[in-house]
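[recover] target loaded
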């Protein structure tokens, strides 16, 4: 009888450990230089094929948390849909919006997006505040939070579905300004349109970005993630990663 009781207790302890060490499935999107594939492809199914500022931070904190995990790079909508429906799933780098906040636990911030208005190389445009931009034609990306923000405030925004072409529109004087992230904008301009030297005219807002984890993920995993993040910050490693990307 004692032997059977001991076996039962051992099985219960093993089951509890399995919950704590279950693989965390993580998603991200192609958004250089924060998250991106190493080969330029729009999808990746191995964490070895995914890099970027936020990716490096996430991999480092997961290493400190000592958790098993996988990372897949897919469309943002696909990743959000998976994480909203499944415990032990997470997605990065995402902003903590009012509609998202109740459904996830948030680890971070991993980095932040700087809402920036860019002009073409050599432009003489100068802005002291956002209101000064009302006289200009602004290019944006369809569905993007920065583009929607300006449009909702009554700015003249011409949004297109291929964000990389906005840099080309700038130099061809189809638009006067382009709203994009302070890091991602120049990267995208060089990659998609072979244009460098954009003028950052005004940074008017900053949005912190997080690892969002399904609310019903086990407490052990959530505690390990937050512990790993704190160790990363306190050791200075997070700041070192950010500096390596010019942040």
């Amino acid at each position: 009888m004692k032997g059977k009781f001991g076996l039962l207790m051992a099985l219960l302890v093993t089951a509890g450990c399995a919950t704590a060490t279950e693989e965390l499935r993580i998603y991200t999107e192609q958004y250089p230089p924060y998250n991106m594939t190493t080969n330029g492809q729009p999808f990746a199914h191995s964490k070895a094929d995914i890099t970027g500022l936020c990716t490096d931070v996430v991999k480092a904190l997961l290493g400190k948390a000592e958790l098993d995990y996988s990372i897949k790079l897919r469309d943002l909508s696909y990743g959000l849909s998976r994480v909203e429906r499944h415990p032990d799933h997470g997605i990065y780098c995402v902003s903590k919006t009012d509609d998202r906040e109740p459904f996830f636990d948030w680890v971070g911030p991993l980095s932040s997006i700087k809402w920036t208005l860019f002009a073409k190389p050599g432009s003489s445009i100068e802005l002291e505040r956002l209101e000064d931009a009302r006289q200009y034609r602004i290019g944006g990306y369809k569905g993007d939070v920065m583009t929607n923000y300006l449009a909702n405030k009554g700015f003249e925004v011409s949004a297109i579905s291929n964000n990389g072409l906005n840099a080309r529109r700038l130099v061809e004087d189809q638009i006067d300004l382009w709203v994009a992230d302070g890091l991602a904008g120049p990267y995208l301009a060089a990659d998609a349109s072979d244009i460098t030297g954009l003028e950052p005219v005004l940074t008017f807002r900053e949005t912190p970005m997080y690892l969002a984890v399904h609310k019903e993920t086990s407490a052990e995993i959530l505690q390990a993630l937050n512990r790993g993040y704190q160790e990363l910050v306190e050791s200075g490693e997070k700041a070192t990663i950010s500096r390596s990307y010019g942040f």
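[recover] notes: The chain has eight helices and ten strands.
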